[in-house]
Write a structure and sequence with these properties.
This protein has 658 residues and is an alpha+beta fold. 47% of the residues lie in helices and 17% in strands. β11 and β12 form a beta hairpin.
Length: 658
């Protein structure tokens, strides 16, 4: 069979692509234009580019673990002896031409390999063919295992929330002399269909170490190529109730919807529509729209001023979804019954614009939809809509009953964390069930949720690490009902149904929220589970689950209005991400500016009115109206600055973002 993918050539391209987008295959400028653009940058930028190129070339020429001499021409080897400087980037034209040719050859190889694989997939069952195509495009560098069983080979792919899949290759004939099971990271799959059947070649890295993927691709050690002939591959699929799994992980509101959308889209990309229920397929277009608009809302803060919404690239597949007006009419009741007619109207405008081939308006309307969605989240007016949508999503997946091995290990970790945190919560007057707890004090609701990260770490010995953090929120409650038996609500939802995570995207001025022990603190509580139950020969390393109690104590102090402890304040200062990322000095100044203006107007009014009845200058040394105006404005600005400084100092002492 033909082998198209050259591992080392791909690795070289990835090393340079990782330095800067200008060196990636997506750069459609010529080598000459790229060099000209680099030379026009500031000295600091040029120095950073030169340093990156020198570092990458040293990796290729001086690392004794790699041998890529056949891929480097004399110009590249010369750069290893005479490093690039910020003031001689003009000399990089030969290097850029070499890199441009490298990308061209790689792109051609990928196209040929994909064409051959697609041709082979056309002769298989549709679901098996879709998964095979996905292995080539979406699964590269994913953990896989290949086992020998039933006269053939099983390719087991990484388990996801939506399920696990395996391809069975029957009647295998191979000269492979290695041992099974073959466990490692899949680099690529080559496939070919002939009259005699199918022929496959898997390239797998069997090393578990700390080297990055690009460097591994250049090394000769720990690589296995498994080539064999077989009959028609078959798909063996187990689907899970991923809605329930996400819900059990403590996901609520925006977080649940975003993760559900990601899982549903990944499932459809991997297996095609054949694996989706009718309910899933009905919600899938909305899931794709929501995922894109969430991403658009997230980058809103970094879009350059003056950029038009139409300049933001919208994925072609999302645009294609807008072509089916009937499909979107099915969502009308979902929006309207939740009181979100305005949101549906914006989405409908995008659909109509796409029908009129007005792509610019489509981009503008989707951007408008993203901005409105985020603003409604901040004002906590999407609670009913999200609650209705989550119920629909949970119903979509409830018929899947497969048992997840990874979820089983999570249940074990959850029970351990529950035993640690729940007694402390009950002792402090909280009620509820893991992972969400709440208590009411006066007119305020106080909430604590234990969060589990979707990302877990697995070692070669089978030890799986789960990361836990804690979120805390405080929200003003509305009292309804009779005096004898009042009920309390938070933004229209009963108090007993509200969680800390419901407040995570709310910025209405009445809500306080913080995440402790998570990404903002660069530290999480960890629980380690040995999924092989000791068969690996090593005990699971000691976990740090009790660390979450320290963060719970910080939350309890914050509920009482006390400043964060000194040890935690130091942690926040060292954190790579500041939690008050939406609170800036300029934003706080603008917030207090109306107060200063009102004070200035009041002082000026007092001066004018006072002058009509008596001589103000006898008591205050102000000679004329102009001086009074200047002093009034200065007084207002002074008050604004003082309030801003006090507010910023207060924020540094408390965990809350408000």
């Amino acid at each position: 069979m033909n082998y198209y993918i050259d591992r080392k050539r791909m690795g070289i391209a990835e090393i340079f692509s990782g330095m800067h987008p200008i060196f990636s295959p997506s750069n459609d400028m010529s080598a000459k234009e790229t060099v000209r653009l680099m030379c026009e940058q500031s000295f600091r930028t040029r120095a950073r580019i030169a340093s990156g190129i020198n570092r990458a070339i040293r990796r290729l020429t001086h690392d004794s673990t790699v041998d890529v001499g056949d891929y480097l021409n004399d110009d590249i080897k010369n750069l290893s002896e005479n490093p690039v400087r910020a003031d001689n980037l003009n000399d990089l034209l030969p290097f850029m031409k070499w890199l441009e040719e490298l990308h061209r050859v790689n792109s051609l190889a990928v196209e040929r390999s994909q064409y051959s694989l697609n041709d082979a997939a056309n002769y298989m069952e549709k679901a098996a063919g879709e998964l095979l195509r996905s292995c080539s495009t979406n699964m590269m560098w994913q953990n896989i295992s290949i086992v020998q069983e039933d006269g053939g080979l099983y390719l087991n792919l990484t388990e996801r929330f939506w399920g696990k899949a395996a391809l069975f290759f029957p009647d295998v004939s191979s000269s492979f002399e290695g041992t099974f099971p073959l466990v490692g990271m899949l680099f690529c799959i080559e496939a070919e269909h002939t009259d005699a059947g199918f022929e496959f070649s898997f390239v797998v890295n069997v090393e578990f170490g700390t080297d990055d993927m690009e460097l591994r691709a250049l090394q000769d050690r720990n690589w296995v190529r498994l080539t064999f002939r077989c009959g028609k591959p078959e798909l063996q699929l187990t689907l899970f109730d991923y809605g329930k799994y996400l819900h059990d992980f403590g996901k609520c509101g925006h977080s649940f919807i975003e993760d559900w959308c990601s899982e549903a889209i990944h499932k459809e990309q991997s297996l095609g529509s054949v694996s989706m229920t009718e309910k899933e397929q009905a919600l899938l277009p909305l899931a794709k729209i929501l995922r894109v608009t969430y991403q658009m809302a997230d980058v809103d803060a970094i879009i350059e001023k003056g950029s038009s919404p139409s300049q933001i690239a919208i994925p072609d597949k999302v645009l294609e979804l807008l072509g089916n007006r009937y499909r979107f009419s099915l969502y009308e009741n979902l929006f309207k019954e939740s009181g979100q007619e305005e949101l549906y109207g914006i989405l409908k405008n995008a659909v109509e614009a796409w029908g009129d081939d007005d792509v610019e308006t489509v981009g503008s309307e989707l951007w408008h939809f993203a901005g409105s969605l985020r603003e409604k989240e901040r004002m906590d007016s999407l609670r009913v809509f999200y609650d209705r949508l989550i119920k629909e999503m949970l119903a979509c997946t409830s018929e899947f009953e497969g048992v997840s091995r990874i979820y089983g290990t999570y249940s074990e970790a959850e029970e351990k964390m529950r035993a640690i945190i729940e007694p402390v919560m009950i002792e402090n007057g909280f009620s509820g069930d893991y992972p969400h707890y709440r208590r009411r004090r006066g007119k305020k609701g106080e909430y604590v949720s234990v969060l589990t990260s979707n990302i877990n770490k697995r070692t070669v010995n089978g030890v799986l690490t789960y990361y836990f953090s804690l979120s805390a929120a405080q929200k003003k409650l509305e009292r309804r009902g009779s005096r004898k038996a009042p009920e309390y609500f938070a933004a229209g939802m009963p108090f007993d149904l509200t969680t800390a995570e419901d407040c995570s995207y709310v910025f209405d001025g009445k809500t306080k929220y913080a995440e402790l022990g998570g990404a903002y603190d660069d530290e999480s509580a960890e629980i380690n589970i040995d999924i092989f139950e000791g068969i690996s020969g090593e005990e699971a390393t000691a976990d740090t689950a009790n660390e979450l109690l320290r963060f719970a104590d910080v939350a309890f102090q914050a509920f009482s209005g006390r400043a964060m402890p000194r040890w935690y304040r130091k942690k926040r200062r060292r954190a790579s991400v500041r939690y008050q990322n939406e609170i800036t000095a300029s934003g706080t100044f603008i917030r207090f500016l109306p107060l200063g203006l009102y004070l200035s107007a009041l002082l000026m009014g007092v001066y004018v009115v006072g002058n009509r009845f008596f001589d103000v200058s006898r008591y205050i040394p102000i000679d004329d109206t102009r001086t009074a105006l200047v002093l009034s404005v200065l007084a207002g600005l002074t008050v604004t600055v003082v309030c801003t400084v006090l507010r910023m100092r207060s924020l540094r002492r408390h965990i809350w973002r408000y």
